[in-house]
Every structure is written in structure tokens, then in C-alpha cells.
Amino acid sequence: MKDIQWTLYRSKISYFSGKLEAYLKYKNVPFEISEINRHSFNTIYKHTGVKKMPAMESNHGDWLFDTTPTIAWLEQQYQGVPVIPDDPALAFIALLIEDYGDEWLWRPAMWWRWVPMGSRRALGWIIGSEIIEEKLGRQAGWLFAKRQMHEWLWDDGVDKTNEATVRDMLFREFDFLEALLEDQPFILGSHPSVADYGYFGSMFRHFGNDPDSAEVMRMQAPNTYEWLARLWNAKQHKLGDQTTLIEPTADYWQPLLDRIANDYLPYLEQNAAAYISGEKRFNYKGKHINFNKTKTTHYRVWCYEVLQQKFQNLSQNDRKRVTDMFQQVGGATSLSHLNSDVVISGMNDIYKIPIKAGEKRPIKTNLAVLLGGQARN
After folding, report:
1. For 83, 255, 275, 361, which has the most beta carbons within 10 A of its beta carbon?
2. pLDDT average, residue stretch 149-177
3. How many CB atoms lie within 10 A of CB 14?
4. Is beta strand 31-35 parallel, antiparallel or unpaired with respect to 6-10?
5. Cα–Cα distance between 290 and 207 in angstroms, integer?
């Protein structure tokens, strides 16, 4: 990989751009930044079939996109301390937390960015200026903010009965992170893992930088605020090769394991069942929150499929180790469902990377995607 140089197409305020950029810096992957604009957005779309950022292009014309498979692929190409633990059970836990951070914390990230007026105006202007142009930034940003609130909040199961719970999801994560980061520098021990990068997307680009939530974090979650800077500045050569992994057995882990086992995994399972049944919406019921008429999301069927496959690839002993970690929160049922028949999303080929130079991926063109990208995964 010594002759490979990468271009990272990103937005400096993007959830997943921050996640990937922090990883690239940690692993010393050679890259330069190309700030997103309408032209580069269309270039990504042309080569990947997906109009989302971040994406990476090599100097040989190969493409990577979607942070989870991108990080997994880069791990195979670049040596050094792995961000996916060597211990199979802890590797599964790390990947599960990454998925939770990516897909479950998106709603509160949308609430804290777009509902408070000051944040909505500031971030809308920035995004509008990036995607359209400076002189239309305010108007485009206002429209983009309306779309984001519609797609991810008010038209996706968030209403007056659960809005406060969505908002307060941030404080529940602070409860966990503050206690953990008092004891250790990273989520699973001495070095960053994909669990850190999964959390980092929402915590850095949204909660840690947006006006309202950043002030809340500074005042109420200083350990988390410090961890953001530590992870952003982490370099594997500075941390060394000697790693210490710490299993998630401390008391402060239990509320997070509870949310994963009794809210997030049931959400993925119910979403997959709705997709298989051809339902465009379903009434999600979890332990701590419900979403009525939430949208069925094809991408998250794929997320569940991947988690099932990874769980079933574990040895019997490692599956038991993982299940035992969730026993205290009554999560054995959700884990047992991971061991049932694997759902088929039909998306494995879409997210197979790298896309080699000259390879064409199917593009589904519609006006909304052409104008503003893909709002949903």
C-alpha cells in the first residue's frame, strides 16, 4: 500500500466524516482532504452509486465508501495496532457498539443539531454553503434543516410523547462515558477500537461541536470532552504496541448493555421483519422508548444481517462469553435471536469494496437525490 495516496471527500461538520478522519489519522493512512461541494458530491455518486459522504478515492482510481466497511477493509491493508480486537468476543462487542453508535445515536444527534434554533441556523448555513453555494447558503440551509428534522424526527416516529426521551438519550450516554473514561483512556482499554470510532461520529461532529450540545458537554461531561480531543489526536505509534483490553463487566456498563440488548437489537430485528413483510413503516416497541410509524430502513436490515453473521461465526464458547456479558440486563433473548436464521438484505454486493477503477455500480437517479443527496442510509 506504500504507493497508495487517498483523497477523503468530507464535510467538516459531517457525523461520519469525523469518524473516518479520526481513524485515518490514528492509523497513519496517507490522505488529503477535499471539502464537499455539489461537484464532488456528484463525483461520489457517479463512482459509487451512493450520494453520501465521506468517500475515499485512491490515486489509482479505486473508491471506498461507508465508514464501517471502509475501516474494516483498511484494517486489512495497514499494519499496526488493530482497532478490531484480536479477542473474538471483544471484537464482536466492539463492532456491536460501533453499529449502535452509528445507527442508534443518529436521532438524538439530529435533535440537538436541528431543533435548537441557534444550532439550526449556524449548521444549516454551513451545510447550505457547502452543497449549493455561499450566496444561497442561508436559504439552502433552512431547507436542508427542514428536511433533516422531517426525515429523522417528526416523520420517523418522534412526537410529543417521546421527544424528551430522544433529547435525553445524550445524557444517558454521558452517564456511561463519564464513568468509564474516569477509569481508562478508551472504551475497551488502552487503545482506540471501532467502539470508540462508532461513538465518535455523533459525539465529535454533533454533540461536541454544535453550539447547544457542546456547551452541555463542556459543563456536564468533561471526561467525554477530553476523550474527544484524545481520540482526535491519537496516533498508534505514540501509544505503542502493548495493548490492554478490559472486558465490559463494571457496573457502569450495565445501562449501555441494557440499551443495546433491549432497545437497539430489538429495533434492528423489528425493522428487518417489517422490511421482509413489505411494510414501509412499523410501530417499534423497545424497553425504554417506542416509535410509532417509524420508517423501515433497508440499510439497517443489512446492519442486522452483518451482526447475525458475525455472531454466528463466533465459536460456541465465544458466543457464550458475549451472551454472559448481557445476562445481568436480561439480554439473552436478543442475543439468541442473532443466532436464528440470518436475514437477507440483498445489500452485500452494494457495500463490497473497494470499487475498482472503471467498475460501474448501478445508480438509481431521482430528483431528490440529485439535488440534496440521500437523507437516509
Report:
1. 83
2. 96
3. 20
4. parallel
5. 23
Quick check: 371 pLDDT over 90?
A: no
Q: What is the DSSP string of 233-249?
A: T--HHHH-S---B--S-
Quick check: helix, strand or coil at residue 173?
Answer: helix
- How many C-beta atoms lie closer than 10 Å to residue 225's C-beta? 20
Which residues lie below 8 Å from residue 47, measured CB to CB, with a gap of 6+?
A: 55, 57, 63, 355, 361
Collect all residues with Cβ–Cβ distance below 8 Å to 96 and sequence separation of at least 6. 260, 307
**What three-state secondary structure class fits 13?**
coil
Are 269 and 105 in contact, with CB atoms under 8 Å apart? no
Does an H or E element contain 284, and which?
strand 281-285
pLDDT in tens, 15-64: 999 999 999 999 999 999 999 887 888 899 999 988 889 999 999 999 99
pLDDT at 134: 53
Angle at 332 between CA 330 and CA 338, to 5 degrees: 140
Q: Distance (Å, rounded) from C-alpha 200 to C-alpha 98?
A: 9
In the predicted model, is pLDDT for residue 375 greater than 60? no
Say what the pLDDT of residue 41 is.
86
Q: Give all domains of the chain, ordered by start, each with its CATH number.
A: 6-79+352-372 (3.40.30.10), 88-338 (1.20.1050.10)
Distance CA 249, CA 102 (A): 23
**Cell 474527544 sits at which residue?**
228
Burial (CB count within 10 angstroms: exposed 0-12, middle 13-18, buried 19+), residue 96: buried
**How distant is the alpha carbon of residue 249 from its chain centre?**
24
**Residue 80: what residue type?**
G
Lowest mean pLDDT among 231-235, 322-326, 370-374: 370-374
Place 377 in a pLDDT band, splitting at 50, 70 and 90: very low
Helix (H) or strand (E) holding 9: strand 6-10
